[in-house]
Amino acid sequence: MIKFENVTKTYSKGVRAVDNVSFHVKGGEIVGFIGPNGSGKTTTMKLLTGIIKADTGHIAVNGFDIRQDPIKAKESIGYIADSPDMFLRLKGTEFLNLIGDIYHVPTESRRERVEKLAGLFGLSEALSAPMMSYSHGMRQKMMVIAALLHEPPVWILDEPMIGLDPKSAFELKQLMREHTQKGNAVFFSTHMLEVAEKLCDRVIIIKKGQVLYSGTLEELEKQNKNKSLENIFLELTEK
After folding, report:
1. Is the pLDDT of residue 239 over 70?
2. Domains and their CATH numbers in the chain
3. Sheet bearing 2-10, strands edge to edge
């Protein structure tokens, strides 16, 4: 459902944030994207969602080329950015209605989904308040609800657990599992190895814009016997 093939992105001053990176994510998979700060995770997410353009390479989501058919590709995506601090002058209901309008979510379906998700994440009573009055965690939960509102087949989540309380993090993990059980795909970045270990079917480890490892954590442990995942990760990313 995600094809990311031979993609390169260079910023000003010759900084190559993504360096000839390739990976695929199939339906039914949760794939974790792991790496230290500055490794290229967020740039990869922005390339996948069409926020920025690649210098070279091919990117497709749900069968739609992000350059040739950007609207169809973006309609297939539920995206959580690395910061929830946006549209803060809007009330919660106004923000979710804006997202519903953008993605053409029917009024009745929209109401049902908002009620379900807001209840799940404990935001029902906050929807009538401006989002600038929300805590960081509440804003993060609003971004989760917005990303799921149109029931997209592909979820692209940039550090989605940051700021979530334990209950909300648990609920999001459950939703991610349910999503892939329907044949959909989840691709998310994280720096928390324990989350990746419990949740992911596969992981991709990146450093300085290059993929160091792609496969299961079980395979990685077999290749590095008698070492903890934390030590394996540190050895890979500190070389």
Report:
1. no
2. 2-76+152-237 (3.40.50.300), 87-151 (no CATH)
3. 16-25, 2-10, 56-61, 64-65
